Amino acid sequence: MFNPQALLDQLLGGQVGNTARGMGQSVKGKLDQYSGSGGFARGAAAGGLLGLLLGGKGIGKMAGGALGYGGAAALGALALQAYQSYQQNKGQTFSGAPVSMTPEQCASLSPQALPHSQPAADGGSFQLVLIRAMIGAAKADGHVDAEEQQRLFGEIEKLGLDATSKGVVFDLLSKPVELSSITGAVATPEQAAEVYLASRLAINPDVPAERAWLDALAARLNLPAELRQRLDAHAV
Q1: Percent of the chain with pLDDT over 70
Q2: Helix or strand or coil: residue 229?
Q3: Using an 8 Å Cβ cutoff, are 129 and 137 in contact?
Q4: CB burial readout 3-36, b (16+ within 10 A) else e
Q5: Do residues 105 and 73 touch, judged by C-beta distance below 8 A?
Q6: Which has the closest alpha carbon to 81: 57, 43, 113, 49?
Q7: Of 43-57, 90-104, 202-216, the least confident
């Protein structure tokens, strides 16, 4: 049976089936290393599907952090933490450093508390929305052309994905990913924060086409500038 959560974990390079509690335990030794340093969210491991889609161009900025251990649970926890911090500190100047999240805080989160645990606006899986967002962001600079698609198809065939998961990835690689299909599926402000963070991890903001894609996403999500700064701080 198709499991969107498992596919999202594989995309991020995390361990399949992580829950928020399991993430808090599995990354216990890593959180203190990355919390507050600006590097905590850069762990969409190069070995994950996203690293494969990026074709090596994002390995330097994304390797070695907590997402590679916590997968989707870490992504949701970071987005939720950034949103709550924004809510609690409205009107205050952001220092530029992400607020630390202790292993205990991560472990105390129930899976149901994470933004992607709630349905998308159309009632579907929000994990699939995040997958669309990351693949769309990874393709924003146009490097995934027809030749690159064929190479990726061959590599993805080796990953042991079930037929439905492969079909989802192949379909998203083959067709344009419209921003409206992403932003129209966002049901809550917390989900908006998570979809932005997921997309931010898949781009290089120094590439104009990728930055333009991210700016357009933020505008359509109506993200406050202060919240966007907090989310960006987790990915630099």
Answers
A1: 70
A2: helix
A3: no
A4: bbbbbbbbbbbbbeebbbebbbebbeebbeebbe
A5: no
A6: 113
A7: 43-57
Token pair 């919240």 is found at 227
Find out whether 140 and 134 touch, Cβ atoms under 8 Å.
no
Whether 49 has a pLDDT exceeding 50, the answer reads: yes
> How many residues does this entry show for the chain?
236
Cα–Cα dist 23/18, whole Å: 6
- The pLDDT, as a whole number, for residue 62 is 35
Neighbouring CB atoms inside 10 A of 202's CB total 25
Q: In the structure encoding, which two tokens stand for residue 66, read together?
A: 């907590």
pTM for the whole structure: 0.79
51 with 62: CB under 8 angstroms? yes
Residue with tokens 């494969």: 52
Pairwise CA distance, residues 146 & 17, whole Å: 32
| Residues 6 or more apart whose Cβ sits within 8 Å of residue 228 | 196, 218
The answer to whether 190 touches 80, Cβ cutoff 8 Å, is yes
- Token duo for residue 54: 């990026």
Distance CA 180, CA 194 (A): 16
Average pLDDT over residues 183-205: 92
